[in-house]
């Protein structure tokens, strides 16, 4: 420290580095560091470290009119899918000096409203929402207030927000194609909630995949989950197998639902994959540790977070930038839960669905 009785100030750092305080401020700010030379930035950074200087976030907020905090709403922090996504988000935000404030909503609209309001009261610079559902009042409020918002892992029709998500429809079509290639023709589907874009898109992908192989889809081949949970997967698995005991394969809209469906097979004394093959969606961490390991559709979780952060930073720092809808390419991951009808399998492989697993972008003015 410059003096034993007080913390080091920006002026102390500037004096130690031999620069003007304004130059020191630019050198220490990730958003303006490129405006000074590498040598100057290094000298200022070394002086700040030597003096133990810590920026005053309140003063900085008053000066820049930014809090450098981002509100992030997650529907269920118990879902293993989200930690790697949030890690990517936080890492990318940190490169521009932003910190993420996480809010878990438990997929409860009242709780989501409370968290959203409290974050707005703390003057966050923008929001990343992984909680979008059809008719959400939060989405409508964000649109009306012109807040910088990016949707993550879900989309919302008719709202002016950039978004990043997996190409769910393409992924589910690939899941169906995999089952058909194994010889299955009696295939059921556990659909996700139809007020969530992923549920709608994956159901559409299932129907399109079945149609592409000229396979009929009756109403009794589809059961709708009320939420993405193991409990709902168990319920839906029971209902589907009670209605169609002749099914040899089930395409499931989410890994947690698939885990619950395993329980339904166990209750009926059925073997997976000998009696019924199951494939999920997401490739959430540790899903390969199940017995049998779950075949699924993978997308890059960490990249989803970094892309969401990049889109939001762009919206904050360049408000007039065009909206972007980003879809990350899915990848079929074949493990032991899928096999030809009447046989077991120890297969394990990953099959990219698009060359290079690249992402598709679409800009909207």
UniProtKB/TrEMBL annotation:
Residues 355-365 have a biased composition (Low complexity). GO terms for molecular function: DNA-binding transcription factor activity; transcription cis-regulatory region binding. It holds the Pfam family LacI. Signal peptide: none annotated. Keywords: DNA-binding, Transcription, Transcription regulation. Gene3D superfamilies: 3.40.50.2300, lambda repressor-like DNA-binding domains. Residues 1-24, 339-365 are annotated as: Disordered. It comes from the Bacteria. Residues 8-64 form the HTH lacI-type domain. This is LacI family transcriptional regulator. It comes from Trebonia kvetii.
């Amino acid at each position: 420290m410059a003096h034993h009785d007080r913390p080091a100030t920006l002026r102390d750092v500037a004096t130690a580095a031999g620069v003007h305080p304004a130059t020191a401020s630019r050198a220490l700010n990730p958003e303006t560091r490129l405006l000074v030379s590498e040598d100057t930035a290094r000298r200022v950074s070394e002086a700040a470290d030597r003096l133990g200087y810590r920026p005053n976030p309140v003063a900085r907020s008053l000066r820049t009119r930014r809090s450098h905090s981002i509100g992030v709403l997650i529907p269920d922090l118990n879902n293993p899918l989200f930690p790697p996504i949030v890690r990517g988000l936080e890492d990318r935000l940190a490169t521009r000096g932003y910190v993420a404030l996480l809010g878990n909503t438990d997929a409860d609209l009242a709780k989501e409203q409370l968290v959203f309001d409290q974050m707005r009261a703390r003057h966050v610079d923008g929001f990343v929402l992984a909680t979008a559902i059809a008719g959400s009042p939060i989405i409508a409020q964000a649109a009306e207030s012109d807040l910088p918002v990016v949707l993550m892992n879900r989309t919302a029709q008719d709202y002016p927000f950039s978004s990043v998500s997996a190409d769910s429809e393409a992924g589910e079509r690939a899941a169906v194609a995999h089952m058909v290639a194994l010889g299955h023709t009696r295939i059921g589907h556990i659909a996700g909630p139809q007020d969530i874009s992923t549920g709608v898109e994956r159901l559409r992908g299932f129907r399109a995949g079945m149609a592409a192989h000229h396979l009929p889809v009756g109403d009794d081949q589809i059961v709708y989950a009320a939420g993405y949970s193991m409990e709902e997967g168990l319920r839906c698995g029971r209902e589907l197998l009670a209605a169609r005991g002749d099914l040899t394969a089930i395409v499931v809209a989410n890994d947690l639902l698939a885990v619950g469906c395993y329980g339904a097979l166990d209750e009926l004394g059925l073997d997976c994959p000998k009696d019924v093959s199951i494939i999920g969606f997401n490739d959430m961490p540790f899903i390969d540790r199940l017995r049998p390991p779950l075949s699924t559709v993978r997308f890059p979780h960490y990249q989803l977070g970094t892309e969401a952060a990049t889109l939001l930073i762009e919206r904050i720092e360049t408000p007039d930038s065009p909206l972007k809808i980003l879809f990350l390419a899915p990848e079929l991951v074949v493990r032991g839960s899928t096999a030809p009808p009447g046989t077991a399998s120890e297969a394990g492989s990953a099959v990219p669905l698009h060359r290079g697993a690249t992402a598709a972008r679409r800009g909207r003015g």
